[in-house]
Amino acid sequence: MEKGLTVAISLGAGFAASKAFDFAWEQITGEKPPKNDEVDAVDIKRALVFGVTSAAVSAAVQVLSQRGARASVRKLSKSYGAKSEV
User: Fold this and answer.
1) Largest CA distance in the chain
2) CA nearest 32: which of 17, 48, 53, 47?
3) Tens of pLDDT along 18-67?
4) Contact 72, 5 (CB under 8 A)
5) How far apart are CA 55 and CA 51, in angstroms?
6) Looking at residue 8, what DSSP letter applies?
7) DSSP letter string, 21-79
8) pTM of the prediction?
9) Residue ranges per structural domain of the chain
10) Is 20 helix (H, G, I), strand (E, B) or coil?
11) Do the beta carbons of residue 70 and residue 6 sit within 8 Å?
């Protein structure tokens, strides 16, 4: 159960963080985030800054979502185990 919950939370958090990062990038720079189809049109400095910051956000979201999922599973199993009298 823990692994399934961790995967689900990680996917959801990763998707939300990706969208939020793209939105923030566009608000800060005034340009759309560089994507694969625009490789030749993007300055190397801008592409590196985008890649590094995007990877840092992704890694932070992954770690935090895994910790949150583990803590949630522990809470659920403790509360469920205390109430169940089979």
Assistant:
1) 65
2) 47
3) 999 999 999 999 988 887 766 677 788 888 898 899 999 989 988 888 88
4) yes
5) 6
6) H
7) HHHHHHHHHSSPPP-GGGGGGS-HHHHHHHHHHHHHHHHHHHHHHHHHHHHHHHHHHHH
8) 0.70
9) 2-83
10) helix
11) yes
